[in-house]
Fold this sequence. Notes:
Elements: H1 2-17, E1 25-32, H2 43-47, H3 63-66, H4 72-88, E2 95-104, E3 111-119, E4 125-132, H5 139-148, H6 159-175, E5 182-190, E6 195-203, E7 209-217, H7 224-230, H8 242-252, E8 257-264, E9 273-282, E10 286-297, E11 300-314, E12 319-332, E13 342-356, E14 363-376, E15 379-386, E16 389-392, E17 398-414, H9 420-423, E18 428-429, E19 434-446, E20 457-467, E21 477-489, E22 492-493, E23 496-497, E24 501-514, E25 523-524, E26 548-550, E27 571-573, E28 578-589, E29 594-606, E30 618-629, E31 632-641, E32 654-660
Parallel strand pairs: 1-3, 4-6, 7-9, 18-25
Antiparallel strand pairs: 2-3, 5-6, 8-9, 10-11, 11-12, 12-13, 13-14, 14-15, 14-16, 15-17, 16-17, 17-19, 19-20, 20-21, 21-24, 22-23, 24-28, 26-27, 28-29, 29-30, 30-31, 31-32
Amino acid sequence: MKAAWLAALVAAGCAARRAPPEAEVVASVRFDGNGGPLRGTADERLRSAMVQEQSPPWAWVAPRRLWVPLDERELRLDAWRVENWYAHHGYLDARLLGWDLRRRGGGRRARLVVTGLVEEGPPSVVRRLDWQGFDALGRPALAWLERHAELAVGQRFDLEALDETVEAAREFLGEHGYARARVEAAVDAWPEERAVDVVVRAETGPACRVGEVRVVGDTDVVPAVFLDDRITLRAGEPWRSSELERTRRRLFALGVFSVVSVTPDLDADTGDAVPVRIELVGSRPREVRLGGRLSTEGTRLDARATGSFEHRNLFGRLLRLRLEAEGGYTRTVEALGSGTGTRGPVAGLDASLLIPRFPGRGWSLDNRASGALDVQEGYRDAVLALSPALAWRPGPRWTAQLSYHLKYVDYLELSVAPSDALDALAALDFRDPYLLSYLGQQLTWDGRDDAMAPRSGRYLSVGLDEAGGPFGGQASFLRARLDLRGYAPVRRLAGRRLRGVSLAARAGGGWIAPYGPDEVRQVPYAERLRLGGATSVRGWTADHLGPYVCAAASGLDCLSEPGVLQPTRDIVPIGGLVSLFGGAELRGYLANGFGAAAFLDAGMVWDELAHVGDPGLQPAAGLGLRYRSPVGPVRVDVARRLVDEPMFAREPRWALHLALGEAW
Length: 664
């Protein structure tokens, strides 16, 4: 009986959504007289204020279910809703004069094109913006708040911007110790003067400190010492609202909780102390994933199946064990349609064990071992590697890492053999097989707001590797690298307020210097620096920006030279010992998660320090589409090389990249 009632209710609900056979349906809703997308009053934004919807473009697939019927009553009310939307966005005199209904097509069902006739009128601007009750912050802090407020004197009034300004002021006060501060706004509109006067008023109350911090819920999932390491709130310390979110993120990053709630009790009668309650809900520590990927970039085709197992709380001590395996087939093609290249099966196995608090608080030891059978452009190889790494976090944004790497490489197939041309490039080594042993150090400062999709902050990474010498192996060299990134939100452009727009910039490079006796004074082929691809200079195929040699299939014996015409596309990129790169990107996202980007990249790899600048940096510009998915931004970038350098004459002028995550 219950099942029958449920079926009847579902059927009734579906019938309610369907358009009756003879009903008039709305094919589209448009507006005439609105200011267009550059003024923020595009059709899409006005439709968001309406109840009457339009049918999807594919409604003809299932007309009874997908066509949206016309509701004349709601359409009449939508006129008021659109005018109200305009008023909230500064157009106090805007009027919707009426709806024009035009029938389109034939048949029994009348399909309507609904056009709203709009008379916008001039917008009202913010004439005065007063801040009252903020004296406790001091003039410098208040000046910073005024500069970064979403609402500003001289711009079009916007109720959403006002709400964001009030919320930002409340957060700003909380960040300066006023946890119980109240902020409200008063608005006086003068339509005849096209002006709006705004007062943002605060009641700060006393400066607060952190009170008792209680942790409840599944507190026995890991030893209490690990929880204490991640909680940044300390009783008696000055109050900062951002520490609530920081503590929540740090606890969630442990990977053993499905829910982490950090809640202040602002109503507690505890004077200037604000108690905080942290509630934890445990999750399953084991995870198995199966998947695959099919990708192509330039000359590389890659098809792989992947699988992984992760235990995030081994033995209940927060030891993290991760096993990853993959297998498939890869093919590279040096010349389009030539049928030449390197191809074969690929496989890999990677195992890691992360030990936290080793040897003490703020430290961790990551033991990693891997083996791979891989195909690269110009060669196939088998690699065995062991890489233990000791990391120390002296502060919330700093990470220092000391690692040791032992790598054995065996070339199974090589598309180019040593020749007189290659011997001229002293740093290029095709020793087969070889053993590499080196010590690595890396210092990172990460001030980004989000590692996957940053909008503000800075990032700096400096690294140094020492191979050979006291560490043994068959190659001796020093390798230094630098990566500097910056991000800033763009709130206004040409006097207009922007949402979801940010500017990203990047600069960096690397340098490798061989040293020691002649028999070890070399840099293995696979260790050289390379540029080009989805995450560096996007006008290029992966690794193709820099020195190259002609592949055996070309029948030529050539080495790239600046100013000399590239003889063939049958080449093998060999990288170099010096690299420089940089770029800038303007990114923007809409509320629905879709976005776009415009970027300019530049870079170059040289075979040695003496050749830096010959040729110069190779620029590329392009456009991209973005979508913010649950696992990070999905992006499609199209870029074009901007300089006609003869040594790259046969390289494609355009490059297409599909990737997960921002370029940097």
